[in-house]
Amino acid sequence: MPRKDPLLGLDITLDSYSNIKNHTYLQRCQERFLQHGTTFKSNSLGANAIYTIDPDNVKTVLAGKFEDYRLGQRREDAFVPLIGHGIFTADGEGWKHSRRLLHPSFTRRQVGDLDVYERHLMNLIRLIPQDGSSTVDLQRLFFDFTMDTGTEIFCGQSSFCLAPEKQGPMSTNFAHAFNQSQRTIADGVALGPLAFATHTPSFNKDRDTVHEFIDHFVRGALDMQSHIESSTSQGSEDESKKQESFLARLAQQVKDPICLRGELLNVMIAGRDTTASLLSNLWFVLANRPDIWTKLQEEIGFLGGQAPTLEQLKNLTYLRHCVNESLRLHPPIPVNFRTSVRDTTLPFGGGTDGASPVFVAAGTMVYYHVYSMHRLEKFYGPDAADFKPERWETIRPGWAFLPFNGGPRICLGQQLALTEATYVSVRLLQSFSKIQSRDPEPWHEELTISCSSQNGTQLGFKQTSQHPIDDLKQPSPRSPESPFIGQPRWPSHALIVTLTGGLGL
Questions:
Q1: What is the DSSP secondary structure assignment for residue 402, as one 8-state letter?
Q2: Which pLDDT score, from 0 to 100, does residue 186 have?
Q3: With CB atoms counted within 10 Å of each terminal CB, which end of the chain scores lower, N or C?
């Protein structure tokens, strides 16, 4: 790619950073691929870089030649000061150890526990004005909701962002510090080797607040596990059976509090924002598409206001298609990268026609842009820029659809994220008869750890007369089966396992 500074590529780096701040980075990246092709070379702060949206190249990096690539120093420099070492920041044997450690905590039965969503969703719904004239930022509520569900699932106790009257003294400070520190490390990723510049006194304070909050639960889990192990009474066995949180199960195997904190923060940071972003982006579109709203209302009508079971969620075909289309047009993780650890090749992008292999020298960063790949007309047709759920009735784009990464590092929690998003959407559809967008602007990107709407999701709601909010029927007994929210089928070689949305764990 032509550049003014061929030595260090500072012009490209500064331009990209400026585009992020101006909320035009993804659009600008797509323009570059249209101009230079689906794979091209450049550099980033003096380091060799390859940019690609070719699905075969992405498949090669993430699966075919998985051992030739690592996350690289850039991610570690940005994330480790906040979240420590764990599945999201580790490579090699460290990553394999973390994945083996975490995988048992994400069984189908645990992913399918809908009660935690129901409890916190009632708190969310009661914060939505129901008069049809008031405006609420649903995106802010979604981020609070996933913070509440995430802390309960992972820590065993909710932060209660949506119910401040239930908060402990540390919860309010934690939520604010967690949000601010994520923005800081997102800047660190963009700055690469200059990430240290983001470690300001303000960031250090936020980091310490986050660590203090998590350490409180880590100490409690370790103390409880120690008590159980030292007791031989039947009562202690009963206590052991009651340990249902992610942290409590992890404390049965890990005794190092720093390691526990790291693994816990790794999964929390990977999962909380991505699910909230998916919900926010989906509902931004629903508010502007009454035709889709009507079809969804018709599809869930058979529930009669009853909370859906997992089996019923699986059978909501049109909702699944809407979720897929949201993940396609607005993937929560729109850009990712790997660093080659040895000389290797990509199958396409070389030669005058781009059909020849490309040499990848050791130390090269390979960026794969999911946002632009999801808009390739070759796979999605001439209307690829449009939100069209019906396209999922026939298409099977394979590696051209990558909302949850692929290969051995495919997202552990894709079912957790998809179950939460579909369940929340059904319950909101049951609660309100009409919604209206209160944002005259089109969707604009907001890039932090994930990608959401710059202006939030500004909506007006009208309460349904058939199923008043306070009388929403509670869930019926649920099947242990986990819904597969997904056409197309995920790549067959991938490890189809269950954690958090798409950050390459």
A1: -
A2: 84
A3: N
